[in-house]
Amino acid sequence: MKLPSSTSKLLALQEATNVELHVRLSEIFKRYRGAAFLARNDNLFMEHWTPEVAAAGYDFDGFEIKDKDIVLRGVEYACGFIYRISITLPLEIIDNAKAIEAYFHRQYEESKKSSELSAATSADPSQ
User: Fold this and answer.
1) Mean pLDDT over each residue of the chain, to the nearest integer
2) Are 74 and 36 in contact (CB under 8 A)?
3) Is residue 23 part of a domain?
4) d(CA 29, CA 89)
5) Does the predicted TM-score (pTM) go above 0.85?
6) How many distinct structural domains can be found in the chain?
7) Which of 68, 72, 76, 91 has the fewest CB atoms within 10 Å of its CB?
8) What range defines the domain where residue 36 resides?
9) Residue pLDDT, tens place only, 62-79
């Protein structure tokens, strides 16, 4: 890769790269932000929301690389409060839309099985 010769051109390249990254990662976040609420299995939450509905108001806020994962952060401003969520996925699949889809599909399936097991356990008084 040949880098620009002047600092100002290098800064412009960085800005263009940041804008493009924001657009691409924002699309991933928007599609899978409901995964941030998959671990919620309390009755009050389950009676009123699905993970997708709970996450609908969150906008992409940024990202960070943590070891072999990328963390996509979201934020929602409501009623004078700032709410934050994040979703994590392996960095190695970031360029593969099908792998990302499969990754989050597995998370949804595991969450579904976990909540079904939890419901069955709480319904069984002998446990």
Assistant:
1) 90
2) yes
3) yes
4) 10
5) no
6) 1
7) 68
8) 7-123
9) 999 999 999 999 999 999
